Amino acid sequence: MGVSSIAWILTKMGLMQRNDIPFGDSAFLYRHTPSIDSSFALHAVCGLLWIVVAFAQMVLVRRYKVVWHKKYGYGVLLVFFMHIAACMNIVFKDEANHHPVAKGLLMSTAFTSTIHMLRGIRDVIRKDVEGHEINSVVAFLYSIEGAGTIRTVQHLQLFVKKLDLPSVLWGPSDCQTIYHGEAAQCVAVYCVRLILVRVLTYYWIGMYARCIKTRRRFVVSTLSESLLTTSMTAAFAMARANFNASSFFGAGVSAAGDSVCVLSCWILIAFWTFSRR
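The structure corresponding to this sequence follows.
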């Protein structure tokens, strides 16, 4: 993984060293497992389908009749939840053997976008057109963190590496290469990348709010809510990571227990945040 077509082109042009991206357009290869192809394929197909369908809804369909926008919206919701399910599936398959804190940050993408999407649906029922548009766009921005947003951060980190800044800012690719794609030994660099991805999402939300002249209160509440809920989950995941699994959950259930515990935490937070507005 660590896929970068731009880096591949730069390597072919002699502008980047081959050891930065040794496997064609990828920095490392995962260890092969029976489920790795199916889980990544489902994630990729649903993710790409969601981007295409969401773009059509926000840009093309909305230019025509409202009735078309509404009818097409049912299909959009179906694809959105397919995308979220595929995201959660890949976290539970856990081909990269993630640390609980990394799982908490990864799940934040799915749950934060779902919360805003459900708020967008509620706004439709309440006839709040502006609220529906804002929450839907914010849901979309959170939901594509694993697509263009993380790729943007990855390329920025390639330049950071060339500037010889602290290695924790270089991204997890070098570390994961050593462990055949596994991220359990690369917690700091992996989580730093996820944090930078979220910071970039905050920037896009701010730019969107600025373009449509949304009140400052919306931006502050949206960002503070995201910071609060993600921090709560990360703290819970850290406590889980330091907890002796065999003393309560029983031996041999650590990986599944991590995912279930973090998922339960996010479900509770999702209910709480959704009911607040």
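The longest helix spans residues 66-93.
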